[in-house]
Amino acid sequence: MRMFVEINDIYLHSGFVDFRKSINGLLVIIENELELSPFSDAIFIFCNKKQDKLKVVYWDKTGFALWYKVLQKQRFKWLKVDDFKHLKLSEQQLNWLLGGFDVIGHNPLRYSALGL
Fold first, then answer.
1. Is the CB of residue 11 less than 8 Å from the CB of residue 45?
2. What CA–CA distance (Å, rounded) separates 80 from 100?
3. Exposed, middle or buried: residue 87 (CB in 10 Å: 0-12, 13-18, 19+)?
4. In terms of CB atoms within 10 Å, which end of the chain has fewer, N or C?
């Protein structure tokens, strides 16, 4: 993805979003749910429930921009974790996501004892 601004942070919204929301609706989610500033040097990524569409919102110093991607046959590998509101991605992880790879990896295991 090519943009005309320098991006410092990439945030992936962990839940699914109603894609009838436009930029203003997504900005409300960024401020209220993610508790982040939409004016930061960041991009914010949202996915629909069918996991075949992405919306990316960012501030380009003159206004908000919206990037929209629709997959024709596949689905994006999306978060299934409810432990956090968003996940901060690296540029490489963003490229993996757009390329169809899982950016999360395996679910963490939590043990209280070794059980040996």
1. yes
2. 16
3. middle
4. C
Q: Which residues contact 14 (CB under 8 A, 6 or more apart)?
A: 79, 81, 82, 84, 85, 86, 87
pTM: 0.77
Q: What pLDDT digit, counting tens, does each position of 55-114 carry?
A: 999 998 899 999 998 888 888 777 665 656 777 887 887 787 777 666 665 455 567 777
> Is 27 within 8 Å of 19 (Cβ atoms)?
no
Residue 106 has which token pair? 């395996």
Residue tagged 């996501």 (tokens): 97
